[in-house]
Amino acid sequence: MSKDLRLNDEIRVREVRLVGEEGEQLGIMAVRDALNLAVEKSLDLVEIAPTAKPPVCKLMDYGKYKYEQAKKDKEARKKQKSMEIKEVKLRPNIEDHDFETKARSAQRFLSEGDKVKVTIMFRGREVTHPELGKTLCLRLAEFCKAESSIEREPKLEGRNMIMILASIKHD
């Protein structure tokens, strides 16, 4: 159902198809009569299908309905995990130990379900040897192959080479 439902006096049509609070059909009636019935039962008249001919309205406690919807939305948000892109920055002439430290960080990010953006930063004339950066990217992908797959191949963008690794979830 839409967030901007019209209710009670906001409904501007001559007649509506009325649905009771338990979902039972009460038939087609004038809006005035439907409003009187809603007031009698101390409920709200809510337009749930404005495009139907005639529009469909339901008798319900609108405050309670909004509260229930908010609760459902909050529960749905709680269940979904937001995935982030974490970044690992390397240099083409990195030492083995430093590489392994960065690679373990990437592995940890991937095991937590995040994506990893691998950036090789070239300085000065290093950019004339992009194959070194590509080799380094593929070496990192090989190191993390149990947790990830390459989502985007290594590509030179200006003075940086970028590759994206996506996590493979083992549920």
From TrEMBL:
<protein>
    <recommendedName>
        <fullName>Translation initiation factor IF-3</fullName>
    </recommendedName>
</protein>
<comment type="function">
    <text>IF-3 binds to the 30S ribosomal subunit and shifts the equilibrium between 70S ribosomes and their 50S and 30S subunits in favor of the free subunits, thus enhancing the availability of 30S subunits on which protein synthesis initiation begins.</text>
</comment>
<dbReference type="GO" id="GO:0005829">
    <property type="term" value="C:cytosol"/>
</dbReference>
<dbReference type="GO" id="GO:0032790">
    <property type="term" value="P:ribosome disassembly"/>
</dbReference>
<dbReference type="Pfam" id="PF00707">
    <property type="entry name" value="IF3_C"/>
</dbReference>
<dbReference type="InterPro" id="IPR019813">
    <property type="entry name" value="Translation_initiation_fac3_CS"/>
</dbReference>
<comment type="subunit">
    <text>Monomer.</text>
</comment>
<feature type="domain" description="Translation initiation factor 3 C-terminal">
    <location>
        <begin position="83"/>
        <end position="166"/>
    </location>
</feature>
<keyword id="KW-0396">Initiation factor</keyword>
<dbReference type="InterPro" id="IPR019814">
    <property type="entry name" value="Translation_initiation_fac_3_N"/>
</dbReference>
<dbReference type="InterPro" id="IPR019815">
    <property type="entry name" value="Translation_initiation_fac_3_C"/>
</dbReference>
<keyword id="KW-0648">Protein biosynthesis</keyword>
<dbReference type="InterPro" id="IPR036788">
    <property type="entry name" value="T_IF-3_C_sf"/>
</dbReference>
<keyword id="KW-0963">Cytoplasm</keyword>
<dbReference type="GO" id="GO:0016020">
    <property type="term" value="C:membrane"/>
</dbReference>
<comment type="similarity">
    <text>Belongs to the IF-3 family.</text>
</comment>
<dbReference type="Pfam" id="PF05198">
    <property type="entry name" value="IF3_N"/>
</dbReference>
<dbReference type="GO" id="GO:0003743">
    <property type="term" value="F:translation initiation factor activity"/>
</dbReference>
<dbReference type="InterPro" id="IPR001288">
    <property type="entry name" value="Translation_initiation_fac_3"/>
</dbReference>
<feature type="domain" description="Translation initiation factor 3 N-terminal">
    <location>
        <begin position="8"/>
        <end position="76"/>
    </location>
</feature>
<dbReference type="InterPro" id="IPR036787">
    <property type="entry name" value="T_IF-3_N_sf"/>
</dbReference>
<dbReference type="GO" id="GO:0043022">
    <property type="term" value="F:ribosome binding"/>
</dbReference>
